Amino acid sequence: MADLDSILKQSLANASSHTRRVYSQNPLTASELIELANSRVLTIAATVRPDGRPHLSPSDLIVVDGVFYLGVDEATARYRNIKQNPAVSVMLADGWKSQAILEGDAQFLDVKSGTAKAVFEAQKKKYGWVTDVLAEFKPIKAFTWKAK
Q1: Which residues of 130-144 are buried (b: 16+ CB within 10 A; e: fewer)?
Q2: How many helices (H) and strands (E) does the chain have?
Q3: Contact by Cβ (8 Å): 148, 13
Q4: Residues near 13 by Cβ (< 8 Å), separated by ≥ 6?
Q5: How far is it, in rounded angstroms, from Cα 135 to Cα 76?
């Protein structure tokens, strides 16, 4: 969680004046961000198509032991896009109560690993289903906001 706190602080410190003004008003803490990610809120992932255009889609997102994971099905554009380019942006929105924008990279897990088993269990508990594969999502930039 210390890494996530550091990412949140560094992102604001390096942001444009406009972004700092908007997102420094009432940012989420790392633990609040994890709580938001593990709740049933609107979650949208953006990946990069082979031609460089963005691709948006609703996404599964779960945090297990402080690590973010994306659920991905192999028949989707998201799967093909991440295989070619690991860059991913994720937006979480609980209406106007809280929001987060995360930018980072995703790497597919071995679905037979113990980590994948634990994440699949958490995914099943949260959503009622599991996806074909999982990708560990490592945020490198994050902006968050919550209502006062």
Answers
A1: bbebbbbbbbebbbb
A2: 5, 7
A3: no
A4: none
A5: 13
Helix crossing, 30-37 with 2-13: angle to 10°?
A: 100
- The number of folded domains in the chain is 1
Domain of residue 52, residue span: 2-146
pLDDT of the chain along its 148 residues, tens only? 679 999 999 999 999 999 999 999 899 999 999 999 999 999 999 999 999 999 999 999 999 999 999 999 999 999 999 999 999 999 999 999 999 999 999 999 999 999 999 999 999 999 999 999 999 999 999 999 999 8
On whether the CB atoms of residues 110 and 64 are closer than 8 A, the answer is no
Per the listing, tokens 């560990």 go with: 136
SS3 state at 41:
coil
